[in-house]
Amino acid sequence: MNRIVAILALLAACADPQGETPAGTLTVLQEQQAAWVRNFNPLLTTGGARWPTTAGIYEPLIVYNRAAGESVPWLATGWTWTEPALRLRFDVRPGVTWSDGAPLTAADVAFTFDVLRRFPALDGAGAWSFLASVTAVDEHTVEFAFSRPYSPGLSLVGGQAIVPKHVWEGVADPVSFTNPDPVGTGPFTEIVRFDAQVWELGKNPRYWQPGVPKVDTLRFPAVASNDQALLALVRGEVDWAGSFVPAIERTYVDRDPAHFHYWFPAVGDTVFLYPQNATPPLDDARVREAISLAIDRKRLVRVAMHDYAKPSHPTALSDGYRAWRRDDLAPDGGWVRYDPAAAAAGIDAAGWTLGPDGRRRNAAGDVLTLPILCPAGWSDWVRAAQIIARDLDAIGVDARVEGLDFSAWFDRVSRGDFALALGWSVSGPTPYAFYRSLLGSDTVKPVGTAAATNWHRHGSPAADALLAAFEATVDPVEQRRLSDALQAAFVEEAPAIPLFPTPAWGEFSTQRFEGFPDAETPYATLSPNAVPDVLLVLTQVRPRDDLQAGSR
Amino acid sequence: MSGLLRRMGLYAIAAWFALTLNFLLPRMMPGDPAQALFARFQGRLEPAALEALTVTLGVSTAPLGEQYLTYLGQLVRGELGISLVYFPSPVSEVIAGGLGWTLFLAGGALVVAFTLGSALGALAAWRRGGWLDTIAPPLLSFLGAFPYFWLAMAAVWLLGFQLGWFPVRHAYGPEVNPGFTLAFAASAVRHALLPGATMVLASLGGWVLTMRNAMMGVLDDEPIRFAQARGLPPARVFFHYGVRNALLPSLTSFGMAFGFVLSGALLTEIVFAYPGQGYLLLQAVRGQDYPLLQGLFLTITLAVLAANALVDVVVVLLDPRTRG
Fold this sequence. Notes:
The complex is a heterodimer of chains A (552) and B (324). Chain A is built from 16 helices and 22 strands. Chain A is an alpha+beta fold. In chain A, helix 8 runs antiparallel to helix 10 and helix 13 runs antiparallel to helix 14. The radius of gyration of chain A is 26 Å and the shape is globular. Chain B is mainly α and 324 residues long. Chain B has a domain at 96-288: MetI-like fold (Orthogonal Bundle). The chains are: A alpha+beta (552), B mainly alpha (324).
């Protein structure tokens, strides 16, 4: 017994110093992982590289800031279309050095794109589907020649993380390269420590922005679940996180209202209820509109999303597209308002009449049955689907929630094997990619073939012309006019039913650091999940002035 | 000895059968790994990335027979392939990261639960109707009946968070570097105490009951009474005649339970953010990471078979009747 007491005393003597983090060390929770795997390959499309490899260790030419809706020159000081939508010239920022001391030149940019050409597995943006050549014109100018007019290519090219030629030309197979000791241009490049449950990334002593970063080290503890993430947040062990937290005011903010903050701006992708447009009865726009009118979105976001989200705009555009969004199309909410009477009338007009048993039938006597597909483990989506099912039931549509395992759900959704399904959507700097995936005929695959987008299978010839015109112009006024017409086409054709834009989850603590963006100073999106916007935050965050002198 | 050889042959057949199942099962799941990986990004990837991923992961369209031969060939060479979720890290490397911690935590908890449970069970049976016999079995069965997830969460919340007696996550503190130092060992033990204790608590009841019931049966036997009549010291009767015989059924269960050490620590590892292999299994299933899944099942299968084979050998040593 004495021996046990002695051992316990020894263990207790090794006091738990967990809370004591060095003053300049910022603890970040972004990826949920049980154990870290050392991978800093910014070109990988598989997501195998650690956050913030693509925007932190490495950097792109342009950082698109979705909170402000503007493109920030980053490794490029500027860009010009030497031939509209066909030939693009970037001025590579002078005075930038890699973390090993070598200067950044246009050759590095050209080399990076050459790697993507030689290894299509790394070309996640599909850049070589519209590129013809990339050439370093001189030390600080790089020119992209397009194979077809494609103005959205600017953001795809500008968002690519650039790697150093002098390091990567020696890599035989960049696809399987884990890049354990990265050489980058970003604010944080030095791997201070790496083991399975915690790793630390130190600042780049040669960073090109003077006096930046103000934080010495980023620390990443491995945390595998939302519960553990919440525990770490509440204990003040984490300075910055991008987790979903239920009832956040009570569970998090109330623990330390002076320091614990969150900001969930509605700039994420819009969650849709996709109707499969290729098969009756959902090939009829009247039925789709009626379903949309039957959904009580206010209740839906309250019950399913803890009121963190708000009902979708009629154009389905999130707050990230505020500058593009038209408010004149449906001032009363249009087809996304809650109006069960209009919904019932619309579905009547489509030929589905209400029988004495409370079900709707068509002339042939078929009952209107629309199962809703949803990933079973996603409790917020399951609740949303249940509310939709109840709302549809109220107008006589037999809608049941069909919860499936995530991969089974994705398999059926991408093959178009469903009537109604909950799903996410594509986003980008302009509404182009968003509407292309909702309306573009070239994204429609036959039912039964897996598709990356346009799961609902809707092609619109009217939208195709607008999308093609958008690709061909670099004139902002013209792009705006086309975007307006695309929004009108979307509302008119009602291919997919928008529910709510996903909030970008972000929490921070000012116990030790300040300078995070929030609703008052929205200089960027707070969420660390927003890449590459995080570069804006990583270069702004600083230890609190009043704590500078001593440790905490 | 030939009996033992025959049994080892059976184990070899069982291993082959498990390996084949291991090959077939993941391939019967819907979708393919490129799609699964693409889906995990929830629209944050350009649609063009789906093609890039299919190229990267080299999703095989070869006939099943050919894939099977490749699979067996790789196993023989000890290659487990490249993980898809942790691309491009080799599966063996990914598993190696968590295997040690799982063995340490879950294996340690099992040994403690087995030793403690068997001792309590044996003592309870020895003093039949005594206070230990009255309290321990019902109380421990009651604790074991709690859903484990709940028990673990309650432990984290109360002992870790509210009272702050134990660390709430990880296998060692951030202030120590892994290595052969006293500080690291102390930190590792400290971090294993709470998750280990919940695992012991959840399984202790079973061991106590098994041992107690077996011991009861043995103590009623003639040889025990004969030994007592011969005037042998009670300790010798207890250990040599009682425990040694009563332990045999528990030992078989121990072999079985050891296999679950590698797979069953899933909940513990998620609740305590312990860097073991249970969470890997979850991620592999989610991401349809066939190579990682196969690697994990392989280690689990081999561990179960090896533990059972070992128990067989021990039983033969302990029990003369099995030396046929």
